[in-house]
Amino acid sequence: MSFKIIGTGKFIPDYSVDNNMLTQYVDTSDEWIKQRVGIASRYISTKYTTNEMGAFAAKDAMEQCGVSADEIDLIIASTCSSEFSCPTVAGFVQKSIGANCPVFDINSACSGFLFCLETAAMYMNSGKYKKVLVVGSERISRLLDWSDRSTCVIFGDGAGAAVLEAENGHYLASKLFTKGDTDIILIPLDIGNSPFYRGEAKKPAIYMLGQETFKFAVNSIVNDSLDVLKEAGLTVDDVDHFVPHQANGRIINFAAKRLGVPEEKFVSIISEYGNTSSSSVPMALDMLNRSGKLKRGDIVVLSAFGGGLSSAACVIKW
Ligand code: UT7
Q1: Is 153 in the pocket of ligand 1 (CB under 6 A)?
Q2: Which residues of the chain have pLDDT under 70?
Q3: CA pair distance 103, 96, nearest whole angstrom
């Protein structure tokens, strides 16, 4: 299979909101949020759109590997929170970096970045696309009901990106999963003001059955990771780093325990950033990459889960 990651990047918004600040809006506490979710703070983008954040992260990734806009053959972005249906995040990124290539967005909620990687792999397998820019950008804060304590304390904004180069022997195995569902996680959008529509629209906000999602999340990380490792002919002992979607620190702890892996092998950035939806995996990967702990040849398992319901995992040889 098809690509190697040659650059990673991220964008962290301007405004850090700690748990105590949220007690102004909802009946919650720093202690509850830290204990039940493992979050101390999150960043809120008070001035940049989802598109702009995606462009900043893309530039960061390109700068890291010294790839210029005219080398990029395709841009794929993941978002479920953009302010625009058009331009897409990928379209805005293209204009912003000055590239001249086809682009499109993918929405598979929090699993979106991994769906982008798999899509990029398929394009690269055609032989026509040599360098692909993949971006995850989310301004989930605009989709929260700030009077609902079961959701508004969990999420944060941010963006991550990766530059992929066609090369065999790195994207070792992958799995995408979707179980169409309309009850467990729902994000209705504004339906506009057509005079012809009938019935009540739901308020545009995230609705989530937390405990059902929690169980799905733990099972997904465990089963998807084992499935892709098996497909790659590897075991959990061969893995140097697990980079899971950052939704709840306890989900990561449970998954580590069930896989029999020391927690130190799991990258966890949730305490400072919260759940940034499909940006969380590329942001965590970029932090791991820039920490100096990631070495060429390391085996890395990425996994994600969320609305859809969807989940995904892949094994990468760095
Ligand atoms: O990225 C998309 C995927 N999303 C996820 O993976 C999220 C998965 N789910 C979770 O992370 C957890 O289920 C939550 C963090 C959403 C909720 O934590 P929980 O431990 O499952 O709490 P719960 O829903 O069972 O609620 C327990 C209690 C309830 O009170 P009562 O009914 O026992 O009196 C809630 O009303 O905690 C209450 N509660 C809160 N209390 C203080 C819920 N939210 C809060 C809050 N502060 N923010």
Answers
A1: yes
A2: 1
A3: 13
